[in-house]
Amino acid sequence: MHEKERHRIILSAIQGKPVATVQEMVELTDSSEATIRRDIATLHVQKKLRRVRGGAESISPPQFVGLAGRPFSVNETINMAQKRAIAVKAADLCDDGDPIIINGGTTTFQMVHPLAMKRCQVFTNSFPIAEHLLKHSKNTIMLSGGTIYREQNIILSPFDNDVTRNFYAKRMFMGAQGLSPLGLMEADPLLIQAEQKLINQADELVVLVDASKLKKRSSLILCPLSRITKVITDDGIDDKSAAMLEAAGIELIIAERGRGAARVSPEPLAAG
Questions:
Q1: What span, in angstroms and rounded, lies between the C-alpha atoms of 64 and 217?
Q2: Do 60 and 81 share a domain, yes or no?
Q3: Low-confidence ranges of the chain (pLDDT < 70)
Q4: Quick one: which of 144, 142, 146, 216 has its CA closest to 176?
Q5: DSSP letters along 31-70, please?
Q6: Parent domain of 201
Q7: Beta strands in the chain, from DSSP E residues, in sequence order
Q8: What does the alpha-carbon distance between residue 137 and residue 127 come to, in Å, rounded to a whole number?
Q9: Do 217 and 234 share a domain, yes or no?
Q10: What total number of domains does the chain contain?
Q11: What is the maximum alpha-carbon separation in the chain?
């Protein structure tokens, strides 16, 4: 990653919380600890941040604490070919008139392009998804209420009495921080709280993750594998991950990069 890009990510990270640790910035940038420490020293001299023991803090502390994880602007540049292919397969599951929930994220955002040709009832907590579909499609759009988190471009509410519980969805589409035998993983407690409410409003849960997410882990579990109906991923998935999902009774759809075809695992047999 180029130095300017690392600096942008570091400055973004410290805006979202009182102090960002060196280890957090190592994970965000996929750089070495020594590189991050040099970057912090450079930005400290430039008076763009304040170097502290074990990390850095903003010169102008945030008014409220942001969400854990990479900013939307960073994530949208990663594995783009895979995300586009996955999103096309996700949109193929939608028919005109379907009520659907699209959770905010860079993979789910790619659904806006194939959905432009459809007329669904879309509930979303993503400002970019809502804006794009409003401008470029005939879909009906409903936004959740709450606080807009600028770095992730997502709207979240901790309250139970928001508009979420008044919307029924045939399917919910969402990404994830990681996917493991324990279930769907996320990075922030507020995300967990808000997304659990959305999941409860949908008959089916469809998870959109590129193959790299099947090897990533987080400390927070959103839901068990048993709650997931389908997983759409790319052709980089390994046999072990595919076997894990199929053993859990999840329908696996594999989007091949650069092709229109997808490989679908057999539907699990009904008990009895």
A1: 26
A2: no
A3: 16-18, 61-79, 150-152, 158-161, 258-272
A4: 216
A5: --HHHHHHHHHHHHHTTSSEEETTEEE-SS--SS---SS-
A6: 74-264
A7: 19-21, 50-52, 55-57, 99-102, 121-124, 140-143, 147-149, 154-156, 169-174, 178-180, 183-186, 202-208, 220-223, 230-234, 251-255, 262-264
A8: 15
A9: yes
A10: 2
A11: 69
Same-domain status, 132 and 215:
yes
| Pair of tokens at residue 123 | 């509930």
The answer to whether 75 and 97 are in contact (CB under 8 A) is no
pLDDT recorded at residue 156: 76
pLDDT of 269 reads 39
User: Which residues, other chains included, contact 153 with Cβ-Cβ below 8 Å and sequence gap of 6+?
Assistant: 72, 104, 126, 127, 128
**Angle, to 10 degrees, between the axis of helix 33-45 and the axis of helix 3-15?**
80
Structure tokens at 199: 């999941």
DSSP 126: B
Backbone angles phi, psi at 201, to 5 degrees: -95, 0
Note whether 67 and 188 are within 8 A (CB): yes
CA geometry: angle at 33 spanning 32 and 39, to 5°? 95
pTM, entire model: 0.70
Residue 154's identity, in one-letter code, is I
Q: What are phi and psi of 118, to 5 degrees?
A: -115, 170
Q: Is the Cβ–Cβ distance between 224 and 251 less than 8 Å?
A: no
153 and 115 belong to one structural domain? yes
Q: Give the model's pLDDT for residue 138.
A: 93
